[in-house]
Design goal:
This is NADH dehydrogenase subunit 6. By secondary structure, this protein is mainly alpha-helical. It has 3 helices and no strands.
Amino acid sequence: MDSYDIMLYVSYLLIGLGILFAIVMPLIKSIDNPKSLLKIGVGVIGVAVLFFIAYSVSGDEVLPKFAVEPFNLTPGASKAVGGVLLTTYILFFLSLVGIVFTEISKIIK
């Protein structure tokens, strides 16, 4: 094991700690203000509903070349990937609309 492997494992550890702290610290802070947990819950439920809608709309077609080795893509996995992609596109579009709306409202004020 050389220094590259050690640094790679250290980076994995630091990424894991960063993810853990990014999730746990806001939860600890929100104990003082339980209404903030409600906002987080509404956001998570909203994204889940959006994903369900995108998953329902997405197709489950798989080209024959992707149904065999090395991909082994199933219709269910294809539908899940389509749902994630549609959710990402919708959230990206909504963020762009929000940015444009914020900038226009700044100009008007």
